[in-house]
Amino acid sequence: MKKIISSVLLVGILGLVAGYFIFAKSGGSYINVMRLLLPSRNILQGIGNAVQGVEKMRLNILLCGVAGALVGLGMGIAPRVITRKRRRK
Fold first, then answer.
1. Judging by beta carbons within 10 Å of its beta carbon (0-12, 13-18, 19+), is residue 63 exposed, middle or buried?
2. Regarding beta strands 25-26 and 29-30, do their DSSP bridges make them parallel or antiparallel, or are they unpaired?
3. What residue segments make up the domains of the chain, in order of their start?
């Protein structure tokens, strides 16, 4: 069970990092991580985030993290399923 949880967390975090490097580029540079994590402080910052597409970036990065977690889950479960099938034979 620990192996499954650790693989889900590790590959999920790798998915988030990959998603950041893929989707968080705006105007030739990467957006600050804190800007992606924290909500808008005021209306002007909210408008700036809307113009730059920060909400869409957040969603895409989160989806990469979820995809990574699912891959990690598969990597954690697959060895158990394979060994169970071999034992039955």
1. middle
2. antiparallel
3. 2-88
Q: What single-letter amino acid sits at 52?
A: Q
| Angle, CA of 9, 62 and 27, to the nearest 5° | 125
Which residues of the chain fall below pLDDT 50?
none
**Amino acid at residue number 1:** M
Can you give the three-state secondary structure of 32-62, one letter per residue? CHHHHHCCCCCHHHHHHHHHHCHHHHHHHHH
**Rounded-to-10 torsion of CA 20, 25, 28, 34:** -80
